Q: What sequence folds into this?
């Protein structure tokens, strides 16, 4: 987990949270009916797409900030 945390610039607690979510999802899949599972996966997919979009915006902002800081250092 520490290696993944460093490699992807994520906190260990964030990765642990994802693992726990996955475990809960698997546990629910064993108990729930297929329609419940589909709704759960659709919500999870939507949440992940939103998180991905936010992460991409943050990454772009960090890159722009780094470029601006480099320009200031060069002048």
A:
């Amino acid at each position: 987990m520490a290696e993944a945390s460093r490699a992807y610039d994520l906190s260990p607690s964030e990765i642990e949270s994802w693992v726990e979510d996955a475990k809960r999802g698997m546990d629910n899949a064993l108990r729930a009916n297929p329609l419940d599972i589909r709704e759960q996966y659709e919500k999870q997919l939507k949440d992940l797409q939103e998180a991905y979009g936010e992460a991409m915006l943050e990454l772009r902002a960090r890159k722009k900030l780094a470029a601006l800081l480099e320009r200031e250092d060069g002048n």
About this structure: Residues 34-74 form the longest helix (41 residues). The mean pLDDT is 85. The radius of gyration is 18 Å. The CA atoms of residues 6 and 49 lie 22 Å apart.
